[in-house]
Amino acid sequence: MIGKNFFPSFRRPRGHRERTGPAKGLHTTGRILAILLASVSLSHAADPPWWTRAEDYTDIIDPSASHAVSENYAPVNVGQLKNVALKARQYLQTYLPGGPGDEVDTLVDGFYSTTESEDNYAPANLGQVKAVAKPFYDRLKAAGYDTRQNLINQGYPSGWTSDYPWLPTTPVAENYAAANLGQLKAVFSFDIWGRIFFGPHEEFIPANGYETFFVKGTDATGTAIDLSGTTWSLSGGGTISPGGQYGYFTSNGATGTFTVTATSGPHSAQTSVTVYTPVLTTLTATTDTPVIPPSGSTYVQAYGYDQHEHSFDIYSGTTWSVSGGGTITPYGDSASFTSNGTLGTFTITATHGAKVATTTVTVAARVLDRLEIDQSPATLLVPAAGTQLPFTVSYYDQFGSTIAPSAVTWSVSGGGTINTGTGLFTSNATPGTYTVTVASGSISHSTDLTVITSLPALTGLAAEGRYQRVVLTWDAFGLEWGTSFDHYNIYRSTSATGPFTDVGDNLNRTPYGAVDRGLTNGTTYWYYVTVVLKDNWGHKVESAPSDIVSATPIDLPVIGPMDVAFVLDNTGSMSGAINNIRAELQDIIGDIDVSSGHNYRLALVTPDTEGSNKRVLFASLNGTAFTTALNAITAGGGGGTPESTDVCLKHILNVSNGFSTPFRSTATKVVILITDALPSGGNDVFVEDETLTNVASDEYQAHQLALQAQTLGVRIGAVAVQDGAIPEPFYRIMHDYYAAITAPPGKDPIYHEVPSDGTGAAAAVLDVIEQGAP
């Protein structure tokens, strides 16, 4: 007899799941031998070609080996038997509609259930070979493959009557005989190439039902056959609609067994469809929730199946009853049970004709089943010893509903004390992560409590002196879990050694910076910054001081009358830069006012919808109107495509398309162009031309605009908003053309690069203004 543990363990191959190495494979001597069972001649037909199909991972033999007939008598071991079954399973998976089937999958997957074993080298007997081969033959027969004829083709007697490579009358004692390599190969000599197969095969369908058939097949070399032109026919019982390799059968109600035929070129396959009158054979019932509270309810569902295990409609004619404990409300094939508060287990019965199905529902008293600490997990910021956190707990029954509180006991693993009755935790200012536990009898719940007493210092603090102010920036930082940002403290001193005074709280976490205004030009100021975080209970902790930095506010050169036009890309990707400029707008306008000797005019143009939108025209001392217009801009659209900033620049220089206020001849003329996109000329497309020979290209036109601005005495300050490397065409246009060509002799180009989050955009604008002095 063959026990369930007969086959030793078999290591799953590395790499592809269907490949094995020679150590445990069939290639004991570098090749497998051509064979037949002991009672069959060693002379046989050619080996099935799938045995050497390496690309399908079904290769069993080495085609370059000699395969001497004398080697057929070599004994086979258990590892080789498993390896052949593994490859045969892969063959059916690849080429047979529906794959190898559950029985084969279960068998082969069982080879991987334990680790590699030396038992794989044990000799295999004929009974083991039969046990492994039988599921394969059963699957092939179910798919319509003539296993008996294949055996005859492989050398079995022409009168062979068994569908298996052995006779059912073989004495059991012979199963213990050792199997040789030839016999193993004879058993797995089936070949399904060169034909088409049905899926599903020999189907049973209830009257007036339907089924979708499909065919799959290969030629003799294993190449898939094009079945898109398959024709379908039916011997009766309904209709079949063609759909390439699919055929859609619809019953007309007539019962009987009918033949479905699929034909594609020289290939043809048939299967049967048996249409039967369904009879309710099996009735089952299930409860949605088998245990409910005294005030609860649950649904029950009945299912009917006919004699071929197809679903049977029982919606009409199903009756319901319950043995007690509540009421049952029927809804056809389902029902609702509502408890009347009586505890116990009650039987619910579904009846349809002569068929009866039962299920049970238990009404159980609600009891405490689960505790859950409401602050789970918790982070506590502790500025000093004695900081407290009141822990609370929620109570749940076995049904997941809240239940009345029970007596509980609280405890903490360390880092402070907790009131065992109320859950009030008091910190001893020892940082760390501790465990808080609440218990009621055998039921408990624990959570982590992280106590934080100090925070790391901010990094990257930098200071830059501007006109009557210092601009501070610092690195981004992360928040501790369970904390939130409260504010920054800005500390200032006129001495590197202090004393430092808190000159104001910055309540905005981003941008990571601040401006200290109202300072004296020429005086050096020293700064450090801290951040204050808070926990969910309002406790706050201030970080360690940052490094100390210094800066000196500077005087601005008085340039005289200034006309400054802003070309501002307002697409969605520019929102960070626009917000940064807004944050320092009062400083920008103030610096222009000072540098111009209180004689300035501002203009604002944006490239809305690939055009030029004049938002503000030049007007005397129009800072308020400019501020209103800038604050009204909503960044949006764009999608990373080129934008018409060049069109905006053209209309400013040409005083066209509604831009009706020219530069004053006596003023310093500046255009500040801020964008992250290449120019488009108004058509959403950028045409590159580094040689500047294609007059229709956007690059040529941008170069011409720079030359025109130079002729008019207009200086262009270019602010490139980009993350990472600046694309070469973008750099050429912004730096080499706009900024460099318009720079006066002896002056550096006014060109700045800022990241896409906009940090530094306002500072770049101020640099443009300061560098615009003659």
TrEMBL record:
<feature type="domain" description="VWFA">
    <location>
        <begin position="563"/>
        <end position="721"/>
    </location>
</feature>
<dbReference type="InterPro" id="IPR036116">
    <property type="entry name" value="FN3_sf"/>
</dbReference>
<dbReference type="InterPro" id="IPR013783">
    <property type="entry name" value="Ig-like_fold"/>
</dbReference>
<dbReference type="InterPro" id="IPR036465">
    <property type="entry name" value="vWFA_dom_sf"/>
</dbReference>
<feature type="region of interest" description="Disordered">
    <location>
        <begin position="1"/>
        <end position="24"/>
    </location>
</feature>
<protein>
    <submittedName>
        <fullName>VWA domain-containing protein</fullName>
    </submittedName>
</protein>
<dbReference type="GO" id="GO:0005576">
    <property type="term" value="C:extracellular region"/>
</dbReference>
<dbReference type="Pfam" id="PF00092">
    <property type="entry name" value="VWA"/>
</dbReference>
<dbReference type="InterPro" id="IPR003961">
    <property type="entry name" value="FN3_dom"/>
</dbReference>
<dbReference type="InterPro" id="IPR002035">
    <property type="entry name" value="VWF_A"/>
</dbReference>
